[in-house]
C-alpha cells in the first residue's frame, strides 16, 4: 500500500496505567518497581472530626472538676497564709491561673468557697480514718476502733488551722444539720455496726454512739489545742478516750 494512502490505520496509544501506582496495576506490579507504594486511605474529615469531638468532649467533661480542685487548692493556701479577711478573690483566681470571672462559674461568693473547703476537709478526714481502720487486721475489732479514735484526735489537732478556718462561721443549727450527712460519723457508725455483728461489742444504736464518740474525739482535740505544744500528752488523751469508748460499748464486759 502506498505511503500516502488514506487507508485507516489504528492509532497506537501507550498501555493505560492506573494513577494510583504510577507504573502498573497492583496485581501485576513487579517487586523491583521503584514507585512508592500506595498510601493507606486517610479517614474522611467527618470521621476525624467525630474522633476529635469525642476526645474534646471527654476533656470538657473532666476539666471542670480539675479546675474546681485547682481553685480549692489555691484558696486553701491563700486563706491559710493570709487569713479569711485578707484573701481577695482576685488573688485566689490569680493563684489558680484563671480569670476572676472564671472563679464565679464555680463559686457564687466567698461563703460558698469556704463551704466547699469545709466539705473537702470533712471528706479528706473521713478517707484518712477509713484508711487507718483498713490498715488494721480485719478480725482485730478493738484495735480497729482504738486506731480510729487515736487517728481522729491526732488528725484534728494536726489540721487545727484549717479546721478553724473552714468552721469559724458555721452556726450551731447548721452544724447539727451537717452532722447528719457527715461521712466521718457514717464511717464510724459502720465500724460500730460491723463490730457488733461480729460479737466484739454491743452497739444497739450505732449512729447515736458514733455521734457521741465523734464529739468525744473533737472535745479531746480541742483540749489538746488549748495546751502548750510542748506539754501536750497525745498518748494519754487518746488512751483515755479509747478506754471510755470501749467501756461504753461493754467490750470485755
Automatic annotation (TrEMBL):
Transmembrane segments: none annotated. Gene3D superfamilies: Tetracycline Repressor, domain 2. PROSITE patterns: HTH_TETR_2. The keyword DNA-binding applies. The keyword Cytoplasm does not apply. It comes from the Bacteria. InterPro entries: Homeodomain-like_sf, HTH-type_TetR-like_transc_reg, HTH_TetR. This is TetR/AcrR family transcriptional regulator.
Amino acid at each position: 500500500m502506498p505511503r500516502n494512502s488514506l487507508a485507516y490505520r489504528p492509532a497506537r496509544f501507550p498501555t493505560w496505567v492506573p494513577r494510583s501506582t504510577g507504573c502498573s496495576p497492583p496485581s501485576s506490579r513487579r517487586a523491583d518497581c521503584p514507585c512508592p507504594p500506595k498510601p493507606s486511605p486517610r479517614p474522611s474529615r467527618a470521621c476525624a472530626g467525630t474522633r476529635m469531638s469525642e476526645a474534646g468532649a471527654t476533656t470538657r467533661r473532666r476539666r471542670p472538676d480539675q479546675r474546681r480542685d485547682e481553685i480549692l487548692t489555691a484558696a486553701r493556701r491563700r486563706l491559710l497564709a493570709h487569713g479569711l479577711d485578707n484573701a481577695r478573690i482576685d488573688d485566689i483566681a490569680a493563684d489558680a491561673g484563671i480569670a476572676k470571672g472564671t472563679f464565679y462559674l464555680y463559686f457564687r461568693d466567698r461563703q460558698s468557697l469556704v463551704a466547699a473547703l469545709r466539705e473537702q476537709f470533712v471528706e479528706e478526714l473521713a478517707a484518712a480514718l477509713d484508711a487507718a481502720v483498713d490498715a488494721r487486721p480485719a478480725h482485730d475489732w478493738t484495735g480497729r476502733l482504738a486506731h480510729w479514735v487515736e487517728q481522729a484526735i491526732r488528725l484534728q489537732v494536726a489540721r487545727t488551722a484549717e479546721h478553724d478556718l473552714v468552721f469559724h462561721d458555721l452556726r450551731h443549727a447548721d452544724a447539727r444539720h451537717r452532722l447528719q450527712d457527715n461521712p466521718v460519723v457514717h464511717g464510724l457508725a459502720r465500724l460500730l455496726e460491723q463490730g457488733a455483728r461480729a460479737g466484739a461489742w454491743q452497739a444497739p444504736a450505732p449512729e447515736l454512739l458514733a455521734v457521741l464518740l465523734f464529739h468525744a474525739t473533737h472535745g479531746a482535740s480541742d483540749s489538746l489545742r488549748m495546751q502548750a505544744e510542748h506539754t501536750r500528752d497525745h498518748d494519754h488523751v487518746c488512751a483515755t478516750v479509747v478506754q471510755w469508748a470501749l467501756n461504753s460499748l461493754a467490750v470485755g464486759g
